Amino acid sequence: MLPHDVLSQVQAELLDFRGSSMSVMEMSHRGPEFEQILAEAVADLRLLVGIPSNYKILFLQGGGYGQFAGVPLNLLGAGQTADYVVSGGWSQAAAMEARRYGSVHIAATTESTQFTQIPAAQNWAFSPAPAYVYVCSNETVFGNEMHTLPMAQNLPAPLVCDASSHFLSRPIDITQYGVMIAGAQKNVGPAGVTIVIVRDDLLDRAQIACPTVMHYQTMAQHNSMLNTPPCFSIYVVGLVLKHLLTHGGLAAAQIRNVEKSRWLYDALDASSRFSCPVRKQDRSRMNVVFTSGDAVVDAAFLAFAEARGLKQLKGHRSVGGLRASLYNAMPMAGAAALVEAIAEFERII
Amino acid sequence: MLPHDVLSQVQAELLDFRGSSMSVMEMSHRGPEFEQILAEAVADLRLLVGIPSNYKILFLQGGGYGQFAGVPLNLLGAGQTADYVVSGGWSQAAAMEARRYGSVHIAATTESTQFTQIPAAQNWAFSPAPAYVYVCSNETVFGNEMHTLPMAQNLPAPLVCDASSHFLSRPIDITQYGVMIAGAQKNVGPAGVTIVIVRDDLLDRAQIACPTVMHYQTMAQHNSMLNTPPCFSIYVVGLVLKHLLTHGGLAAAQIRNVEKSRWLYDALDASSRFSCPVRKQDRSRMNVVFTSGDAVVDAAFLAFAEARGLKQLKGHRSVGGLRASLYNAMPMAGAAALVEAIAEFERII
Asked: How high is the pLDDT of residue B253?
């Protein structure tokens, strides 16, 4: 979901962007209109998150999956090992992709729990001198989220974090990270743009095989405009950033997200039909997975909810069950409607 | 530029796509609405171009520049050489990028003419057994276009063509190509989606180092949905394809493009102030480069044209001068207005 006022503004400006007589979809990315859109998006993201000047902000293409290759291609030197903490399917896929480019060590995994838990930080077992430590801080499919992360000083290497699915849902202390990657399509904008925040000292470690469009240093030198960037997606991201800035920033977003997800988790914990398999302290505020344990009942609830206008509640095809996504733009009323639907469903079946 | 009726439809559907109560920017790419958008775009492109079933159509990210790496990563085997025909800056950049992944042979180049000519096909000097022969069939910066290409039977390897900047401006006999790549942002839609058309026998030759998001075979197996595709860009591409289908297809597009560009080239050839440096038979119908030979006069014309509402006429920053882009959606009246501006400018200075 995107905020309604953002979509309304996109609609109003679609044929004529602020008197330019062009749509953003038609602009040259080298023209003054788009250059300003990009500059404002970078400045607003810097302000919103509090990103110091020794971090570069890149707008790339290829999604989180593209960065599964982009991270090792940029950071994994010859003969080095990268350490991966596996807390779900996305970190697992990232580790698998990294093996194309060098040695990978699994520092911890909770696969044996079916990712109903995050690997506890005190049990992460690092390789002797890793190039980086990789985590996915919110796993959409399994509905877990890292609510605390080790401080940088307690890690043997820079922390690389795929924060795609909860980026801008809570405050971020970016100084604890070497690289943060975030596909925009959850909280930040439409699919098609990937935000990469890189600390300066990590910009220039890329392998020869790194495609230029993935090369952090080169893209930073070209201000994300080596080639045509995904202009329209960046424009919408910019509007979402301004929306967040005028709605209390990330602290306020976190308060709303804590409250929305608590309603739903409380309802599930009180439910006689449904439950959430994820350990309480590791539950995601973005992706609430739940199930009755019976595929027929789950399917019945899906249909019941759809009839009430509650869409996109199907669990990921790889795990089944049900899943509610409570991204930033989901209003409180949306979560409340789902809580009500669960209660009503329980009454009638 | 995009067709006005396409932009109007995007605007009308922006908040509620055909009764779904969702914007296309908000849809799950696994939902039925987007699956239909993607399926229609593939089917319409197949119909419009006439793409037989032994070619796959992929919607990727990363632009043409991404494919400068994607092509050798997918097609250049260990110990093999790739042959590049260099007719401008884009083919030159593609050849440079390919060197990361193997041996590159320059089969021909017209750099010594400052790319005012296309290398004549009879002079292309191939390596003994190239993996592929690479061309960029329209060079935007230098304003040249390949109006004829050698038949596949006369080439030592599959032809790989970057057709980004004139894709869908004229009929295409895709059976003469092994791979055609096209960033959408010129004739086909907004920036952020790259169309790749691959013959089946070339799908599965990728190097280990090929990132999964660039891997033709994998992306074909996942119907371009291994990860979240650039949904909104694909949706707009789909509307442009339907627009072209209902406006006479590629044959009619070619007739319009021939006529539009002829007006302008005739005016330049008759001009006492301006001229086009490109050899007549190699001139691009999409990108008309011209100059007075005097940077002050060029700048004066730029300002004069802007005041008449004729924008984006600045030559590429690497070569200077002037450039008019006459992509599909530029109406005849746009070209006529430019011809008139040239005549009027000559009268007053």
From this structure: 97
Cross-strand partners of B323: B289
Q: What is the dihedral of CA B16, B17, B23, B28, to 10 degrees?
A: 130
- Which residues of A are less than 8 Å from B68 in CB distance? 211-212
Best CA proximity match to A265, nearest among A248, A286, A244 = A286
Which amino acid type is present at position A248? G
Could you say which of A2, A22, A62 has the minimum Cβ distance to residue B62?
A: A62
How many angstroms separate the Cα of B318 from the Cα of each of B114, B142, B315, B321?
Answer: 12, 10, 8, 10
User: Among B189, B125, B198, which Cα is nearest to B160's?
Assistant: B198
3-state SS, residue B333: helix
Q: Which of A22-31, A182-191, A228-237 has the highest mean pLDDT?
A: A228-237
**Does residue B83 have an active-site annotation?**
no
- What was the ipTM of the complex prediction? 0.95
Under the banding of pLDDT at 50, 70 and 90, the label for residue A257 is: very high
User: CB-side exposure of A90: number of CA atoms within 13 Å?
Assistant: 28
* Other CB atoms within 10 A of residue A152 CB: 15
> Which of A2, A97, A192 lies at the smallest CB-CB distance from B61?
A192
Distance separating alpha carbons of residues B47 and B57, to the nearest angstrom: 12
Query: Is A90 annotated as catalytic?
Result: yes
- Model confidence at B248: pLDDT above 90: yes
| pLDDT at residue B203 is higher than 90 | yes
